């Protein structure tokens, strides 16, 4: 039998989908049963569980990013806080994709942290144990994918039978339980008439009376009609409603599948060519001819999307609306008028301005600020430099003292081990003493991390202060000689954090009204 070394041990608990189903059938709480198993295991091995990491019951086991307690455990393991971690089975640690399993395996391997289960102790430094551990994770992943495929197959079968699989019903419907298995939709008494009304306004027989999506959104908001989430109507909300085939009695699945990206997060992707769409069990709200006319109108009024990932606005991401806080964007006119800077929100009262006027004011304001900042910097430079140097020296001294304290605590920890081996300390006294020392070590390490961060921030602040003036001068000098909007945008973002724009009155033909707007710049300045 593997004898566990003395040290600090933790336990990790997570409920699987099968555990939740078993509890729903009236079986004993999984966490209570697993806690008892791990406490008996720790007693047999003569160790103490210092902390238990317990995931919330509804937490998914597929991705580490969705398990806050697992993230916290891995951070502590990487910081070598634990000698070992007790778990009912290795599958509880990682059941997701290969990348997540690799993160877990490497965290335990490089920190030399044991994995203790009732069946086996996995020593990451032992090649055989490492192979068993990785094989266990592989089999867990294989089982998980099999269950997922079976569940997805059941969902597709449900759609083909006409059932509605979404957890949230579309606007205009209520979700109701079928007598057997699954759900369907019934018209919502208040929302269903609004859906019919929206389609009638959008597809009016007289083209001159038709309302576009932007006008429809404003009209609904003016009348105080709430959305399903009690928020404001937007162009995208109206577009989504008009495009949804559920209103002609159909259900579909897989048109925008959720896929995992490189960052580990799941997002819907672009609609694909093949998906399941059949006649549903619910009653339609719109006839097929009206729905087809709506799609024809929408296609005729559509426009090509902006190039993905390509910046065409030099002020992109820099200007925010001072009325609603939303981003100000570049909008091209369909006529001969030049492009404008506008707020995206339909209900916002902020008036737009021509882009070239806003750009000119932006650069002029940056130049005026630079002139003032240069004068202030020149006046206070000697005093500020001495103060900066004193701060840097103070942070360095504190850091040196903390590192010395950390070495002393490590020596105390080693001495406690010696006293245990010489039987001067009992196991209980050793555990109490070692845990106290470990807490002090953790506190000192945290203080070192904070002090290092403060020192780096102070060094960066001093450097930025000296670099701000020449960087801003360079931007103003080369901006008009640059043709690429993306390069112009990068230049401005290097010296400006953001700006706010406000214009209360329009007047295209009045020169005074055209220039009567407020633009406030927030340059990138050193902290303090």
Number of strands: 17
The CATH class designation of the largest domain is: Mainly Alpha
Helical proportion, percent range: 40-55%
Order of helices and strands: EHHEHEHEEHEEHHHEEEEHEEEEHHHEHE
Helix/strand structural class: alpha/beta
When the domains are counted, the total is 3
Question: Can you tell me the overall shape?
Answer: flat
Main β-sheet description:
5 strands, mixed
Any descriptors?
single chain, 528 residues, alpha/beta, Rossmann fold, Hect, E3 ligase catalytic domain fold, Helix Hairpins, 3 domains, 5-stranded mixed β-sheet, 13% strand, flat
Outline the structure in words.
There is one protein chain. This protein is α/β, with parallel strands linked by helices and 528 residues long. It has three domains: 9-160, 3-Layer(aba) Sandwich (Rossmann fold); 173-301, Hect, E3 ligase catalytic domain fold (Alpha-Beta Complex), CATH 3.90.1750.20; 357-523, Helix Hairpins (Orthogonal Bundle). It has 13 helices and 17 strands. It has helices spanning 17-24, 30-45, 68-78, 98-110, 127-160, 191-202, 213-222, 235-243, 288-301, 355-421, 427-478, 485-493, 511-514, and strands at 9-13, 49-54, 84-86, 114-116, 121-122, 173-177, 183-187, 250-253, 258-260, 266-268, 276-279, 319-321, 328-331, 340-343, 353-354, 496-502, 518-523. The strands form six sheets. It has a five-stranded mixed β-sheet, sandwiched between helices. It has a three-stranded mixed β-sheet with strand order 12-16-17, covered by helices on one side. A three-stranded antiparallel β-sheet has the order 13-14-15. Helix 4 links the parallel strand 3 (84-86) and strand 4 (114-116). The model is unreliable at 266-271 (pLDDT under 50).
